[in-house]
Amino acid sequence: MSELLDHSSALVDAWSAPGGPAADAPDGPTNRVTNELSEVADGVSVVESFSHIVSFRTDDGLVLFDSSSAFTGEGAVGALRRWADDPVHTLVYTHGHVDHVGGSGHVFADGQERGHAAPQVVGHENVPARFDRYRRTNGWNLAINARQFGPGFGRVPGRSGPPRSFLPDDTLACTAVYRDRLDLAVGGLDIELHHGRGETDDHTWAWVPKHEAICAGDFVAWVFPNAGNPQKVQRYPDEWAQALREMAALQPRLLLPAHGLPVVGRERVAVVLGDLATALEDLVADVLRLMNEGATLDDVVHAVRVDEDLLRRPWLRPIYDEPEFVVRNVWRLYGGWWDGNPARLKPAPDVALAAELAALAGGVGALVERAELLAASGERRLAAHLVELAAEAAPTDVGVHRLRARIYADRAAVESSLMSKGIFNEAARRSSAIADASNPAP
């Protein structure tokens, strides 16, 4: 086995043993952006990148699943070419997220330099619509990704400033699309493409019988399923779990995700797929039960929990998305956007509510003082509410923004998920910038 498979096997064996390890999962992400290639079976490779490139050798050339991103694609393709110089016959998009399709321009340019024909590009029929939406919402998507990953995210090496287009201009369009299932035969290799809704509505997972392999895309990413992202469009946790169960029913020997570690061995693959499905199924069931009982969104968010033993497993850690956000997406999917509080159906402007509450409290200073006390005692959620009211009521107050920056920096430091860290850190940066502009250092 490759070193990569040895590593994943050791983790799965340890964490699926009765009782599991006594320690928490290892620090750091299992998605390693090294742009290094590992051959995980005869004629099958994985390039570990921001999004992996999974490749199969065939008699007619390479079949690739995904192309990584615009800023990692060149290095990922370079690693692929040190393994094989065959033409790329087919590029399959597991879905249209830019970290999976943005490197396709590098795949094409490399082929052009080698005199190869352009590859067939295959994706679900909703991929072109996603690309159109990205172009219509370019500024929004650049902003939320800078917030989610940090202000420097997406900058292409050798090019100053942020990317001009969220979806890179040289992204290859699909030359073939399908709706529910598509069977491919490339150079003696049969591939079944299956549609499933999960993180996206345009997602593809694949079964490759010759290798008894599943190409899972983002259905498996070695983090808690990204089914609740607070800044992105609707996700589908129930159907995500269904797709995982369909994969498991094939009894695959090799699991090839687009993030994190490949997994080898039927029992290991079954454990990973089963754990992910169980976590989503139980969460959805708990949310729907409370909704059917008449609970409000606030009730549901603060009541539904995922089994802590599952969340400690290395392939389910909430270090990117987190269960609380998935709860909100389940509510949105089945119940709409209204949270059950009638005052929030047609609310007053935030500024007006903040001014009224500040007056009732005895002024902005009272809100600030109480927020500071709450933060010091570890009541970070309440402290954030109060400092937000203070900032709305006194938007240019330097002292308010200094405290707001500290509270959100503290919140970011103790959060586990990248989603929470990104939003809280941006709030801290904005308040620091306001305070510094109003009261520059001597």
Describe the structure.
The chain is α/β, with parallel strands linked by helices. The protein folds into two domains: 3-281, Metallo-beta-lactamase, Chain A (4-Layer Sandwich), CATH 3.60.15.30; 348-438, Alkyl sulfatase, dimerisation domain (Serine Threonine Protein Phosphatase 5, Tetratricopeptide repeat, Alpha Horseshoe), CATH 1.25.40. Helix content is 45%, strand content 14%. It has 16 helices and 13 strands. It has helices spanning 3-16, 73-81, 98-101, 104-113, 127-136, 138-149, 237-249, 266-292, 297-301, 308-311, 323-335, 350-361, 364-376, 380-393, 398-414, 418-438, and strands at 36-41, 44-48, 53-58, 61-65, 88-92, 120-124, 176-178, 181-186, 189-195, 204-208, 213-217, 254-257, 263-264. The strands form two sheets. The protein has a seven-stranded mixed sheet, sandwiched between helices. It has a six-stranded mixed sheet with strand order 8-9-10-11-12-13. A hairpin with a 4-residue loop joins strand 2 and strand 3. Helix 8 (266-292) crosses helix 11.
Secondary-structure map with pairings?
Blueprint: H1 3-16, E1 36-41, E2 44-48, E3 53-58, E4 61-65, H2 73-81, E5 88-92, H3 98-101, H4 104-113, E6 120-124, H5 127-136, H6 138-149, E7 176-178, E8 181-186, E9 189-195, E10 204-208, E11 213-217, H7 237-249, E12 254-257, E13 263-264, H8 266-292, H9 297-301, H10 308-311, H11 323-335, H12 350-361, H13 364-376, H14 380-393, H15 398-414, H16 418-438
Parallel strand pairs: 4-5, 5-6, 6-7, 11-12
Antiparallel strand pairs: 1-2, 2-3, 3-4, 8-9, 9-10, 10-11, 12-13
CATH hierarchy class name of the largest domain: Alpha Beta
Share in β-strands: 5-15%
The H-level CATH homologous superfamily of the largest domain, spelled out, is Metallo-beta-lactamase domain
Oligomer classification: single chain
How would you write the strand order of the largest sheet? 1-2-3-4-5-6-7
Tell me the domain tally.
Answer: 2
Given helix and strand content, the structural type is alpha/beta
Low-confidence stretches: none
Gross geometry: globular
Give the number of DSSP strands: 13
Through-space gap between termini: 61 Å
Q: What is the CATH topology of the largest domain?
A: Metallo-beta-lactamase, Chain A
Q: For the residues shown, what is the average pLDDT?
A: 94
